[in-house]
Structure formats: structure tokens, C-alpha cells
Amino acid sequence: MSMLSTVVSNLFGGPATLMYPVKPREPYARTRGQIALNESLCDGCGNCARRCPAVAIEIVKEKKQWILYPDRCIICEVCADACNRNAIEVLPKWRTPFYKREQIVFQSKGGKEVKEKAGECPVEEV
Amino acid sequence: MAPRTITPFGPQHPVLPEPIQLKLTLEDEKVVDVLPAIGYGHRGIEKACELNEYPKNIYLCERICGICSAIHGMTYCDVVEKLWPLEIPPRAKYLRTIWAEMSRTHSHLLWLGLAVDALGFESMFMQYWRIREKVLDILEMTAGHRVTQSVAVVGGLRRDIDDDQKKHCIEVLKDVRKEAEALNNVLVNDYTVKARTVGKGVLSYDQAIALGCCGPHLRASGVKEDCRQLGYWAYGDLSFEPITAPGGDTYSRVAVRCGELLQAIDLQLEAFAKMPEGDIAAKPKGSPPANEAATRIEQPRGELFYYAKGNGTRNLERLRVRTPTYANIPSLLVMLPGCEMADVAIIVLSIDPCISCTER
After folding, report:
1. Do B60 and A3 touch (CB under 8 A)?
2. Would you kindly state where each structural domain of chain A is located, as residue ranges?
3. Which of A26-30, A31-35, A58-62, B130-134 has the highest mean predicted lDDT (pLDDT)?
4. Contact at 8 Å (CB) between B334 and B33?
């Protein structure tokens, strides 16, 4: 009998689960989903790569490339905190699953341009 | 005398979320001896911490355990801060307390769910895990992730809780408290739960102390001891009194965790009310000096001990972690002999084993 209140509230309270993926779960603003680089803002200083605890970022200075290894990245947001030019943004959207160990190459544009918002991170084709 | 058989319990077993093996010596259905064997999940995290620079170890230490990851990260920061020593701002102390108690809330809800599931009470298991989702959601809202919160940094914290988030957290926590209290009343008064747990796996007051148990497992044997009494972080300012139960049996351990679940929510609400404004992090100067430090923090499962030795460089010379389950496993040698085979599952679960913590 002591469980009656819980039973009644469950009976009329609707399901506790969501019909995913028909009804996706909205992430919170602070949710760490994936890393994205604003190529216009990055000047290739390497602060992010030096501080990354998972060695997931590589910078090739000759080619002006900023390379992310998504299978190593733990989305801790250290790179975004370390960036002096706010070029790295953490998007609340989760990355889609992938089967191969890949790298995402961003072409740094020398940090001359200034943009308000970071672009969507390219998602691997599977 | 009935013939004796040795039955392996684990490392893969439906009630065990993680790998530990118990070699049970049985006489018919009665356990006469037990030999625990660990070593299935060793990852060498302590050694790996020596190879990384000290700020990078926070994220490694968080991965020692999936349930109390926030507490592991904050405890690592706490021990490294003691090497200077470095005082963290008052607001950071309150925020650490809040996130630690949030971890305790969801850990105890997880355990209560698993324990009733081991008893076969599956509808109750789903009720506990349903309200646990609300706690995980506020963890994601405030810290950015449900499991690995990654909020700690040497010197304080990386993320603050703003007023809107605070208001939402308080609303959710009050709701969770109300629902958890209703479920706890069902659990501790249920006839079947009592029949399966009262008098099972008894550990007396003296045995609990002699075997060096810790956490809710120790307090269920009547020992009033909790690391939070040391007053670290903001616990010194909060009205905290350890919850104990006299029985020393599995039922007492369920009752202690039911009480601690509500107490953890009360502590969060009190900490939210008393939290001062100000900075959330102090900046450490240079590398950790050549010094030694140790810290004791109350994890959901008991006392978590961290030892660190610095040598003046960016890397630590030694990091040692002692987790509560390692201290609680020897008590199984006293609790299991004499019980029925069917009771082994709930008695093993009653110490809240976390094997990934134990082996690191």
C-alpha cells in the first residue's frame, strides 16, 4: 500500500522515456558534444595541442593545418579554455558514430579574420 | 558432512557490474569459505599519472571510476594543491561540495536500484533509476557531462553554477528528495526485502573496525565515522552528522544508504543557500614543489585516499590512490561464510563494490 502514491503518479504521469530517435533529446547549453574550430580565428599558436590531455590535436605549421583525432578526443574542453583567440568552440551536438580511425583537418586561415560564431564541425561520412 | 564443492562467482555474473571473482566453497547450498580474486581490470593509471604533466592527470584520475568521477578529479586537485600548499576560494569549496554530493546522490540511487534488482524487485529498480536520471540531467546542465564532469582544476574549478542553474537544481533536488523518500519508505518496510536482508551478512562493530572497513559499510555496523567530519571543503560550515545503523547486516547497509541519499540532497540544498559569491579558482604558481601530501575524501563508497609526491617539475614523482572498495573486500571473508548461496549476490552488492576503482 505504501507504493500506491508512486503507482498512481506513474499511471497518470506519462512515460519516463523518450521515443528516441523520433523525438531527440535536447542538449543543455553547457553540454560538451564535440569540438569545432573556427578556421578564421585560429592563428596556429599550439596552446590547445600542448594542453590537450588526450593528445588529440596536432598542428602542422608548414601546411597551416589543425588536425583533430576524434577517436582520441575526450571532449574535456581544455583546448577551448586554453585558446586565447576563442577559436575553439564546444558544440552541444554529439558527433555521429564512426567506424574508422579518422582525422578531421581544418585549414587555419592565419587568424586575420574575426567572426562571431564558430561553424558546424564536418561530420565523417560513414 | 556433505561433500564440498568450489563454485566460481564471477568475474562475469549478472549481479556484478564489474569483474571480481569469488571462489565459494559450498557444502550443499551453504557457503563455508570464500576466496576473492581481483586483477581483471587493472589499467595502470597510477603509473600513467607519473608520465603526464600534473594538470593533465585530472582527466585521467576522473576515469578511475565512472560513478564518482567528479570526486576523483577533485580529490586529485585537492592533493596537488596541498603540495604548495594552495588555498582555494570559498565559492570553489562550496561548488566542490555540491558536485561531490550530487555524485553521492546519483551513486546511492544507482546502488539502491542495483540492490533491489538483485533481490528481484525490478519495478523498484526502475523507479530508482528513473529519479536518478533527473540527477544526471542536472549534472549535465551544470558540468556539461553526465558521467565525466571534468569541472575540477588545480586551484579550484573551471565552471561556475549561475543563478538560473542554481534555481533549477534546487527545484529538481526537492522533487528528487520527495520521490526518493517515498521509495525509501517502501524499501525499508517491505516484507520481502526484510526477509532477504535482515540478519544476512552480519559484520559486528569490532569486526568492522578490525578489518579496516570504511564508508556506509562501516557506518552500518554502528561506527560513527565519516571523512566529511574532517570539515574539508565546505563540510565544516554545513550541519553534517554521520548516519549509522546498529545491525551490521545487509538491511542496515540498505537503511544507511537510504538515509545518506536524503542527507546528500539536504547538504546540497544547504550548500546552495550558504554559497558565497566570488572567484572559483586560484592560480597555482609554477610547478608543484618537491613535497609530499596526502588527502582523505569521503566518496559514496567510503574513504578515498590520495598521496602525491612532487619533485619540483611539471610531473609528479608518485601518485598513490587507495579506494574504499579495496578496504571493504576483506570483510566479505567474514560476512559470506555461513550464508546461503542465494544470498551471496545481495551480500556482495551490499559493500557497493566498484572494481574499476579498486584496480585502477
Report:
1. no
2. 25-107
3. B130-134
4. no
Question: Could you name the CATH architecture of A25-107?
Answer: 2-Layer Sandwich (3.30)
Question: Which CATH fold topology does B42-359 show?
Answer: Cytochrome-c3 Hydrogenase; chain B (1.10.645)
pLDDT for residue A18 is more than 90: no
Give the SS3 label for residue A60: strand
Site from B45, B49, B59 to mutate, A interface, most A CB atoms within 10 angstroms = B59
Q: Name the one residue in this structure whose C-alpha cell is 608543484.
A: B288
Report pTM: 0.88
Q: Give chain A positions within 8 Å (CB) of B144.
A: 28, 30-32, 77, 90
Q: For residue range B258-306, what is the model confidence (pLDDT) as tens digits?
A: 999 999 999 999 999 999 988 888 888 878 888 899 999 999 999 999 9
Residues of B with CB under 8 A from a CB of A: 52, 55-60, 127, 130, 133, 140-145, 148, 150, 158-159, 179, 182-183, 185-186, 189
Nearest CA in chain B to A80: B158
- Beta-carbon contacts of residue B189 (< 8 Å; ≥ 6 apart): A2
Q: How far is B198 from chain A (nearest CA, A)?
A: 20
- Confidence band (pLDDT; 50, 70, 90) for A111? low
- Find cell 578529479 and name the residue: B73
Q: Where are the domains of chain B?
A: 42-359
Give the integer Cα–Cα distance in Å for B324 and B65. Answer: 12
Are B144 and A54 a contacting pair at CB < 8 A?
A: no
Q: Which residues of chain B, if any, have pLDDT below 50?
A: none
Q: Does pLDDT of A33 surpass 90? A: no
What are A107's strand-pairing partners?
A65
Question: Does residue A76 sit at the B interface (CB-CB below 8 Å)?
Answer: yes
Count CA atoms closer than 13 A to B205's CA, side-chain side.
Answer: 8
- Record: contact A6-B186, CB cut-off 8 A: yes
Place of cell 517491505: B190
CA–CA gap between residue B131 and residue B138 (Å, rounded): 12
